[in-house]
Amino acid sequence: MSVEPTTLAARAASPAPKGGRSGALARDAGIIFGAFVILFMVAIALTAPWLGTKDPTEINPTLRNRTPGYEQTIRQDDGSTRTFTYRMGTDSLGRDIYSRVVYGARISLIIGATVAIFSIAIGLVIGLVSGYIRWLDAIVMRLMDGLMAIPAILLAIALVSLFRAGLLSVIVAIIVPEIPRVVRLVRSIVLSVRTEPYVEAAICAGTSTPALLARHILPNTIPALIVQGTFICANAILIEAILSFLGIGIPPDTPTWGNIMAEGRGLFRLYPHNIFFPGICLALTVLAVNVLGDGLRDRLDPKLARRV
Amino acid sequence: MTAPVLEVQGLTVRLPAGADRPNAVENVSFSVAPGEIVCVVGESGSGKSVTAHAIMGLLPPKQLTVAAGHVLLDGDDLLTKSPGEMRRIRGDRIAMIFQEPMTALNPVMKVGDQIAEVLDIHTDLSDADRRARVLDVMKAVRLPEPERMIDAYPHQLSGGQRQRIMIAAALVLDPVLLIADEPTTALDVTTQAQILKLIKELRERRNTGVLFITHDFGVVAEIAHRVVVMQHGRVVEQGTTADVLRRPRHDYTRMLIRSVPSLSPPARAPITEAPIVLQTAKLTKTYVSGGFFAQRRVVEAAKDVNLSVRRGETLGVVGESGSGKSTVARCIARLIDPSEGAILIEGADVAKLSARALRPHRKRVQIVFQDPYRSLNPRRTVGDAIIEGPVNFGMSQGDAVARAKNLMRLVGLDGEALARFPHQFSGGQRQRICIARALAMDPEILVADEPVSALDVSVQAQVLELLDDVRKRFNLAVLFITHDLRVAAQVCDRIAVMHKGEVVEEGTTASVFAAPKHDYTRALFDSAPGRNFEFGKFET
């Protein structure tokens, strides 16, 4: 048999698999940038109470629509005074935008992470089963086609209006339309892996179907799912913001980036800071997650990188 | 002697840092005269393809670089040419055909247009002239009905026809040099014979120099005027075909030639006493496609196949691609469900058993696959692969590992290597691991589906020896699926020849090889490359 020069060179160019892979990861600027921004956002979300914030829901009718940098002098009981700086100004109810943006990171990240984890977990199970058990495939896939035919946001609106608006219903509303995409991805991988000789050898060795799926087929889906997970995460953060912006997401008193922007929509021309700061955070986070996903895709699944 | 059309002098191609050797090709020199066929022969990794790509200027940039040497085409050094100049030379004066006719053609372009593309780039012919030239060259490569075929798409043609299209596209501008990189490896023997004949004919008629890259000494004996033997990037020997094949000077060449299995089967005592372990009765597998909207199509992959294998016997199932031999193997291993018929394993019919009822029978039939690179899970250690089966059937982890160690030694590998991953082994070693995995189940029947087709000829001989050894040691019934008549001649007690899903001839290996009865069997034997050449009989 002949060896193509390209594969020969590729084999020669890739040194020991373990050290080489992490070294290559470290060299990748996208992954570093994405991971850094996301870690930064997580740190902010976790340490929100200690970052010079005040109660993000506290309404102050005397300090409405202040521009960023406004300083409030607070006279305390013992007669001394201290100042509180509204770094990002206040909204039309006098709430501190800075505190709301910092606390809002919590909701966005929780939604991004939960939606990614649950939609991948559910999609993985359905995808494995439908890819491996042929007679079930037709039924499951038609169901998934049906789900996919409904626009994601429309479905989310329907679900939210069916149940009470809140964090849980928003999460469910975003997960449901994501599942079919994961199912299709997993199923396509299962269909191509199930005919590999090593899978057939395991069948001959009497391996039961669940063990076969777990040992030989599932590991092949992991790299693609990690990548898909980051895209779902970014998408979920965006959809939550969109739902909140439309006023059908999380109740408006809860600080989320979408809610803050919805609140500032009316006075956008006069006080752009209401939309500017949460918008920047949202864009930066989504960008970071996407860039991280792209980087991981190039590293873990070079075939996908060329195709997409 | 006329001036050579191609002269390679001291060609050295450097590999990137960190490879197992510094140079892919080192100090390689040879020449091709007009009208001469020079075969570059070597095992995988010998650098023969890299040499061809270097001549064409098709090395992947930045990964493989030419460090020294000259490639002279009619005295003109190709290595000093700019990419633009090389583009004009490729297709016009040198042309190349590749191994895989299925992927070398653009599936969404009519084949005639793909041949015409070469003319389009290199000439100013009018559309009508171009079409005429394409038709001419299609006739020259003996394509049937060129007027109809010129507007066909690649998927409408067979593998052999596609390779003819590739050759037509390569020859349409009458190049002085044709480089053929394993052009027949992916083809069936009968098709291969036709393509080889075509190449011989064309170089006679057009006086084209041909550089033919192959790993198959049968092909070398069939068409080469001169032979260049390569190993680890170096030329170990070159000379006329008769000299190299009859009087090889280098030990490596001798070893390679001696590893080529002979077409004359050795004498074997027929096995008539041992009980029949495996028997199929009217085994049939039909595939039905279409349904609802599409037209229903029924394909009979295997039809009324009756086979029987005795304990300790090797039955060879020989046929070309699409003959249904793999379908039969996979039905017997119950990887696919047969449509009709019976599969008797020691008298018990397993053809229709449900997955649950089949489980106890699973361990009795084990299979060794063709591709050693895909038959082991790359994410699991070889130890995990070998013990998986026994543990499934209730053996304790410790016992299974001890057994796996013994089996590794039995197949000639280090018993302590169980913790390693498949990528740390060569193709031949992996095939040994696959055999160990099959043996771990203590089977009665071993199905070997082209077990040596993906291996180099020297490794092939060792793996065949091992298979024969385990057959004797464990008294196995072996069903040996192969397309290679040489291999079949050496390892099989009896042979069944399959064609279009049916067994057309069956008998002892000696009788089938001595006097084939069926027309197809005769055609198959006549196509075997180098059939008139007895390998390994050296003159001194």
What is the helix fraction of residues of chain A, given as a range?
Answer: over 70%
Q: By CATH's scheme, which homologous superfamily of chain A applies?
A: MetI-like
Number of strands of chain A: 2
CATH topology of the largest domain in chain B, by name, is Rossmann fold
Structural class of chain B: alpha/beta
List the total number of helices of chain B.
19
What do you see in this structure?
The complex is a heterodimer of chains A (about 300) and B (about 550). Chain A is mostly helical and about 300 residues long. Chain A has one domain: MetI-like fold (Orthogonal Bundle). Helices cover about 70% and strands about 5% of the residues of chain A. Chain A has helices at about 5-15, 15-25, 30-45, 95-130, 135-150, 150-160, 165-195, 195-205, 210-245, 255-265, 275-300, 300-305, and strands at about 70-75, 80-85. Chain A has a two-stranded antiparallel sheet. Residues about 1-20 of chain A have low confidence and may be disordered. Chain B has about 550 residues and is α/β, with parallel strands linked by helices. Chain B has helices at about 50-55, 85-90, 110-120, 125-140, 145-150, 160-170, 190-205, 215-225, 240-245, 250-260, 325-330, 355-360, 380-390, 395-410, 425-440, 455-475, 485-490, 510-515, 520-525, and strands at about 5-15, 25-30, 35-40, 65-75, 75, 95, 175-180, 210-215, 225-230, 235-240, 275-290, 295-310, 315-320, 340-345, 350, 365-370, 445-450, 475-480, 495-500, 500-510. Chain B is globular. Classes of the chains: A mainly alpha (about 300), B alpha/beta (about 550). The interface of A and B includes residues 8, 196, 197 and 215 of A.
